[in-house]
Each structure stands twice: as structure tokens, then as C-alpha cells.
Amino acid sequence: VIAVSCPSCGGGLQGTQGRTLVVCPFCGVEVKLSLTPIETMQRMLEKRAALDPKMKVLMERYAEHLGASRKQEALVYYEAFTYLVCSLSYDVEDLVELEPMVTPLMRDAARQIGAAYIAPVDRGERVTFASVEALVA
Ligand SMILES: [Zn+2]
Description:
The chain is mainly α. The chain has helices at residues 37-67, 71-89, 99-112, 120-123, 129-136; strands spanning 2-5, 12-15, 21-23, 30-32. The relative contact order is 0.11. The mean pLDDT is 90. Zinc ion is lined by residues 6, 8-9, 11, 24, 26-27, 29.
């Protein structure tokens, strides 16, 4: 637990491990907690360790679908994988925030396997931690 005070109202904030953004319960301001470089490294390793098994499942399912020439289905798994990779570097409330970053990467990946990529927004869907969780379940 990281204890800091809100730069806006001075109220006491408690950051829980694994989050660098907290909303001040007193004034509602969003506060970015600054971590020391070693805390950042520890945090990154923890995040990676939690994501590794999921990324492995996504990769296996991608390969299965691709092997069976189900390119669109394969891309769903590659997409989830890419969202998780990007979430390692950027702190987001949910994966959907990474869409502008992931979409160009997905277009390239789709091109490589000779498929067209339809972004979640154009499919009427959203990629979230919950939707990725459902894919690896
Ligand atoms: Zn405050």
C-alpha cells in the first residue's frame, strides 16, 4: 500500500499495489501515483507473471484456428494477445482504452495472414479484461 496525499485537496490517499491511478475520495480528482524505478520494475514483473499463462493460451488458440484456416477466429485470439501485451506498458482502467494503439498493429497482423481486420468498434464490440478472460476460460 502506497500512502500519499491528494495534490488537489490534501486528503489522504491509499494506492493499492498494482494501480498507479487512484481517484481521490474527497475531491474526485484523478491522481497518478509515482512509483520509484524499482517499484515500477517489480510492478511490471508482477503484471507479466499474471498475464503470461493467459497469453500462452491465446497463442495456442490462435495457432489452432489458423491451422484450421479459421483466420477471423484466429485474429480474435491474436487481438486479445496484443491488447494484453500493450497493457503491460500502459496503465489502463480497461483494455478498451488501448484500441487506438492496437488497431494498426492488428491491421498489419491480419495482412500477414491474408485476412481483413475489423476493429472492435466496427464489430460493435469492446475488448475488455472480462472479454479476454472469457476467451481464455
Ligand atoms: Zn483530493
